[in-house]
Every structure is written in C-alpha cells, then in structure tokens.
C-alpha cells in the first residue's frame, strides 16, 4: 500500500494528521510496518559496536518508532471518539501485538545493558533525568527478571491488553443499549424544552421517530435525575446506569485484577497498587491509605447530614434516584438557584470563546483562530490555531464536544502530535466532551457541570500546548498519574473568576449578562451537597484501591464490591460510587488503575495553587507566565514535586482542600 498516508510525515500545518485521506484500511498496514521499523531501529541501537553514549542509545531510542507513533495517535483517538465495528476489530487485533512489541523493546537485554552503561557525566539536567527514567522504565517493565519470568510477563501483558480492549468495547455497547426510551412526552416533565427536543432528535437518529431517548453518561449520576419529576422514570434511569456491564464485564474485571496482582508479584511488589505508587508522587501506598482514611469519616458525616435535609424536603424515605432531584429542590429553596434558570447563560460557543479562550488570553497572551480549512476526524470536530501574544505559532487545538453512539463516555484530552525539540514538532491536542447535540439551528446550552468540565479539560490541553521539552518521552502530560490532574483542576478556577464569568455568562438570546444576584447565589450554592460529591468520589477511589490491594483473589465482582465498600465505611445506599466496578472505565481501560486517588491527591496541589493565585493578584500575565514557566512547560522533564516546589516555594498545604470540601 504505497499511498498509505501514515507512511510519511504529514505535510499539513503542525503535522496535523491528514484525516481527509485516512481510511480504515490504512491502519493495519501502518501498524505492521511501524512496529517492524521500530524493532529494526532498536536492533541497530542494541547491536551498535560503538561504546554506548546518550546520543547513540537514549536519544536514538527517542527518535525511533515515528511511524508507529503517528498511526497510534490517530487510531486510538478514533477508537475512543468515533469507533465502529471495523475499528473495533482492528483494536482487538492490534492491542496484544502492541503489548508484545513493547515487551520486545523493554526486555531486550543487550539494549538494557547499553542504557545502564551510560554515564550521566557531561549531560544536561533533562538528559540526566531522561537517562534515569529509561533505567526505571526498563526495570519496571521486567528487564531484570530471568528468562522464565520474562516469558510469563509477556503472556500477562498480552492478555491484559486484550481484556482491557474487550472491557472498553463491552461498556460502549452496553451504555448505548441501556439508553432509556420514553414513549410519552408527559413522562419528561421537568426537563427543559431544549433537552426534550434533543431527546427527540436522539430518538430520530436511532430510527425511533416520535419517541424520546435519554442516553447515559459515564458516571453513575445522570443529569436528567436533577429535573425529572416522574419518580418511576428516575428509577429506570438510575438502575440502567448502575447495572451497566454486569453481564459482560463482571468476570472480565475479576480476571484483570488477578492478572495485575500476579504481574506485580512477579516484579517484586506486594500488589498492583504498590507497583503503581512506586512511580508516582505519593511516597507509598500507606500514605495514600492514610489520606483516604482521614477524609472519609468527615465526608460520610456530611453526606448523612445532607440526606436528612433531603428527607425533610421530600417528606418520605428517599432512594438513590431521588437524591439529585431533591438536592436541587433544597438548593433552589436555600439559594434560589434553579439549574434550568442558569443554562440559557451557558451557550457552548460563548463559553468556549469568551470563557475558556478569554481566560487563556488574559493569563498567557494566547489567541485562537478557527481553521475551517483544516479537517478533523469527524464533522463535529473544530480546529483552532493557537498563537502566542506576538503572533508566534504555538500549536493546534481540536474541540470535539458532542456525544454520539460511536464515542465513549466521559471527557478527556488526547495528543495527536507531541511537542519535542528533538523531533522539531509542535503540539496538536484534542479535547473531548459528551454534550447532547441539539437539533440543527438550535443553541447548545450547557449545564454548570459541563462548563466546569470544559475548563478542566482545557487545563490538560494547555499542559500539552505549553510543553517545551527536548524529548518526546517528557512531552506535555507525560507526568505521574497523581500529578496529571493538577494543572487541569487549577484551570477550573477561571470558570468562576468574576471577570471571566462576566465575560461568558450571557443570555444566548438577549446577550444580557447573568444577573449578579444569580451569580452570587450560584457561587454560594456550590458549597452545598459537598458531602455527597466527596463520598461518591471516595467510594469509587476506595473501590479502585480494594481491587488492587486485595490479599485473597476475588471470585465474584458484585460480592467483592459490596464487601469493599462496607469495610471502607462508604456503603451508603443513597450515595453509590461515582463508578461501580463494571463500568469503571478509568481503572480497567483508562490508565488509572490503583490511581483514581490521583484526583484528590492532585486537588491538594490545586487548592493550594488557587490560594497562590488569589494572594498574587489572580488573573494576570505575570501569574500566568510564572505558572507556565515553572510547571506547564516542564512536562515530565523534571521531578513533578520539584517543579511544584519551584513554583510554590514550599511543599503543598492540605488546609485549602479541607476548607473547599467542608472537611475541617
């Protein structure tokens, strides 16, 4: 296949993949050639007769596999954002091959010996850190194991990659199949008119003309539960959400957890969590367990207190599917805030341009120019060129904001091109959200949670766009998992910063700003329901922790989950985990295994950093430049906590987080 667009670097601006030319039949040949080329390059490095140096070994490895990098970035982005049966078949075939390929590199004994023989003397700081990271990567991948153990490790990695792909595909299919079909519009009482029209449009797209379809989002809590007055429909939606994956994923996750435990033991660790944390900013599994133990009792007490308020409002013993509805009632009564009252002020394009982009302009001097001449991977994808204040090109930002049946749930950031001075590349990053698309010609009105998510994911995008590193191994978000959420959580603060909020929170019809009294009430109302929010997060975190620290291997997924929640003290029937085990995509397919604690661990840094911004004048170029220089530009090129200390001038304090979460 000589015309395969992956075989040569893209000629488009910033190396944007030529999506208009890419077809599904291009993937498999590109993967095959890409893996073969990199193995040839690795063999040449390992067999080099010259003494090992940083340049002929480590830098050479960093340059290797460029074709494989190109096709992997595009393919796995499509597998998440716009999959189909053909892509899923390719994914099933290629993921175990990629696991084998990775092992072929990291278990190459001659290559490892060359890396270990390189002296750090004469190398600059980034090169020394890269050399150290390579040694660590190879050891953690099993380079020091004996032949028999390495062979078993290869088999474990191959099977785990296959099972992870199967989990992802099962979950997408089950989430689509679990969408709620409503026959009578009267059942949708409470939903806004635009939400009802969107449900009708979704039904029409599924061949159900005249009906209404409510699709499920990834977390347990479904947005419609806040507004629907029909209790039976709320119950249907909740049960559909929490029962996802029970049939297809229960045995699968037990198998994955067991294989991970076996691999950890093979590599010399007590369990998978210890293996993961050994390469994070948390000092130990004991430190993570201690932090979670400190947070849980106060959060549970807050949730019980909130439950009492909701029971009083409802006048009966509420169930899990009632919580969001009556929380909104209490919020409205206490703060005079109705989520439907706010949505007309959060139109997607205005939030993006006058909120997210505006804050980035004020902080960092960035400007954004939409490039309709550059084609994305789906018609909904928008491409923006990002420039510095003086007009210097920085990179490309792609926004893919709408939900569809071919996209997995949740919100995330991907890199299509990694910044690297070694390769001369500039960043191309993607943000994915899952907002229900309205009928043609109607505005996309967002919930407050969706606004916050847009700011959050753009924080990840900035981490990728501002990368200024020499080597691709360190580019952008290539930092420890329990540090990667920190910059994105910090970026959430600008959603409520008065100057930014006033700029984007304007009525989509009249252009009038959100009334100040509504703004004040909305911000005050954010403090409400924090017990629920913290417990649902901690329940998921402790569930992840249990799956990856067990001593006796689980047999039944549901029984294990129930016992884990009970023993952790978070088995509250009214507050189910944010993700139950069988649809916990973060830990079975998304790289957060034994790492979901990262969000609250990172939030300690985030809350402390928000205080720094407030102490130093807030939304200023000087503050933005400092945060960019000391943190966002570094990627993984320095130790993460060293970068934090360079920025903050000290270790983080936990008190701002405790105050924010109402846990003091």
Structure description:
The chain is of the alpha+beta class. The chain has four domains: 5-106 and 108-141, Glutathione S-transferase Yfyf (Class Pi), Chain A, domain 2 (Up-down Bundle); 178-240, no CATH class; 247-335 and 528-643, Neurolysin, domain 3, CATH 1.10.1370.10; 343-514, Neurolysin, domain 3 (Orthogonal Bundle). It contains 26 helices and seven strands. The strands form two sheets. A five-stranded mixed sheet has the order 3-4-5-7-6, with helices on both faces. A two-stranded antiparallel sheet has the order 1-2. Helix 12 crosses helix 13 (323-335), helix 17 (481-491) crosses helix 23 (598-615) and helix 24 runs antiparallel to helix 25 (640-648). The longest helix is centred in the N-terminal third of the chain and has 31 residues, at 147-177. The mean pLDDT is 97.
In short:
The chain is α+β, with helices and mostly antiparallel strands.
Features:
Neurolysin, domain 3; five-stranded mixed sheet; 7 strands; Glutathione S-transferase Yfyf (Class Pi), Chain A, domain 2; 664 residues; two-stranded antiparallel sheet; alpha+beta
List the helices and strands and how they pair.
Layout lengths: L26 H20 L7 H10 L2 H16 L3 H22 L2 H9 L7 H16 L6 H31 L2 E3 L10 H13 L6 E3 L16 H12 L3 H21 L5 H6 L7 H30 L8 H13 L3 H4 L5 H17 L2 E4 L11 E6 L5 E10 L9 E6 L10 E8 L12 H18 L15 H11 L6 H7 L11 H10 L4 H18 L9 H12 L16 H4 L9 H18 L5 H12 L7 H9 L6 H6 L4
Parallel strand pairs: 5-7
Antiparallel strand pairs: 1-2, 3-4, 4-5, 6-7
Mean pLDDT: 97
Number of strands: 7
β-strand percent reads 5-15%
Please report the distance between the alpha carbons of the first and last residues. Answer: 63 Å
CATH superfamily of the largest domain: Neurolysin, domain 3
Computed CA radius of gyration, to the nearest angstrom: 25 Å
What is the second-level CATH architecture of the largest domain?
Orthogonal Bundle
List the strand order in the largest sheet. 3-4-5-7-6
Please indicate the count of domains: 4
Task: Output the structural class.
Answer: alpha+beta
For this structure, what is the CATH class of the largest domain?
Mainly Alpha
In one word, what is the shape? globular
CATH level-3 fold name of the largest domain: Neurolysin, domain 3
Low-confidence stretches: none
Amount of helix: 40-55%
Largest sheet properties: 5 strands, mixed
Total helical elements = 26
């Amino acid at each position: 296949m000589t015309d395969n667009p992956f075989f040569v670097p893209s000629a488009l601006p910033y190396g944007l993949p030529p999506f208009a030319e890419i077809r599904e039949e291009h993937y498999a040949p590109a993967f095959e050639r890409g893996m073969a080329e990199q193995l040839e390059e690795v063999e040449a490095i390992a067999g080099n007769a010259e003494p090992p140096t940083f340049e002929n070994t480590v830098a050479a490895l960093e340059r290797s596999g460029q074709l494989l990098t190109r096709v992997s970035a595009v393919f796995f982005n499509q597998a998440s954002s716009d999959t189909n049966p053909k892509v899923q078949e390719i994914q099933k075939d290629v993921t175990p091959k990629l696991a084998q390929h990775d092992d072929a590199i990291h278990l190459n004994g001659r290559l490892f010996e060359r890396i270990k023989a390189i002296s750090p003397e004469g190398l600059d700081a980034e090169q020394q850190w890269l050399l150290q990271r390579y040694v660590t990567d190879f050891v953690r991948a099993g380079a020091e194991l004996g032949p028999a153990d390495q062979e078993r490790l290869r088999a474990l990695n191959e099977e785990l990659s296959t099972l992870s792909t199967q989990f992802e595909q099962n979950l997408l299919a089950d989430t689509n199949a679990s969408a709620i079909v409503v026959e009578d519009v009267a059942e949708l009482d409470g939903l806004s008119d635009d939400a009802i029209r969107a449900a009708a449009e979704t039904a029409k797209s599924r061949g159900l003309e005249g009906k209404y379809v409510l699709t499920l989002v990834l977390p347990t809590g479904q947005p419609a539960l806040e507004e629907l007055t029909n209790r039976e429909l709320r119950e249907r939606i909740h049960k559909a959400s929490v029962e996802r994956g029970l049939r297809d994923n229960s045995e699968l996750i037990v198998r994955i957890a067991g294989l991970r435990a076996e691999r950890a033991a093979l590599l010399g660790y007590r369990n998978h969590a210890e293996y993961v944390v050994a390469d994070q900013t948390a000092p130990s599994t004991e430190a993570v367990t201690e932090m979670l133990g400190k947070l849980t009792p106060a959060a549970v007490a807050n949730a019980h207190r909130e439950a009492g308020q909701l029971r009083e409002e409802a006048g009966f013993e509420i169930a899990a599917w009632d919580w969001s509805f009556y929380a909104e009632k209490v919020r409205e009564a206490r703060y005079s805030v109705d989520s439907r009252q706010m949505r007309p002020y959060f139109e997607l394009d205005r939030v993006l341009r006058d909120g997210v982009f505006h804050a980035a302009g004020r902080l960092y001097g960035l400007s954004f120019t939409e490039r309709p001449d550059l084609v994305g991977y789906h018609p909904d994808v928008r491409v923006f060129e990002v420039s510095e204040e003086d007009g210097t090109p920085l990179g490309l930002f792609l926004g893919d904001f709408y939900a569809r049946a071919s996209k997995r749930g949740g919100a995330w950031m991907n890199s299509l091109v990694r910044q690297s001075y070694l390769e001369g590349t500039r960043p191309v990053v993607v943000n994915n959200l899952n907002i229900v698309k309205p009928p043609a010609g109607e505005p996309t009105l967002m919930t407050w949670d969706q606004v916050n998510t847009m700011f959050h994911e753009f924080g990840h995008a900035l981490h990728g766009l501002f990368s200024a590193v020499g080597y691709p191994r360190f580019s952008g978000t290539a930092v420890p998992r329990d540090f990667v959420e920190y910059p994105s959580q910090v970026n959430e603060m600008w959603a409520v910063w008065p100057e930014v909020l006033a700029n984007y929170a304007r009525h989509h019809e009249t252009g009038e700003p959100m009334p100040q009294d509504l703004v004040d009430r909305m911000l005050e109302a954010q403090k409400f329901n924090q017990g629920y929010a913290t417990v649902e997060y901690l329940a998921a975190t402790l569930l992840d922790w249990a799956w990856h620290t067990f001593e006796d291997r689980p047999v039944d997924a549901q029984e294990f989950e129930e016992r884990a929640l009970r023993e952790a003290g978070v088995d509250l029937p009214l507050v189910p985990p944010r993700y139950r085990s069988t649809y916990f995509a973060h830990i079975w397919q998304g790289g957060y295994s034994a790492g979901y604690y990262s969000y609250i661990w990172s939030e300690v840094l985030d809350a402390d950093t928000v205080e720094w911004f407030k102490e130093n004048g807030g939304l200023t170029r000087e503050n933005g430049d400092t945060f960019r220089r000391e943190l966002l530009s570094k990627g993984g090129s320095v130790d993460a906590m060293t970068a934090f200390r360079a920025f903050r001038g000290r270790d983080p304090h936990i008190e701002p987080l405790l105050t924010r979460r109402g846990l003091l």
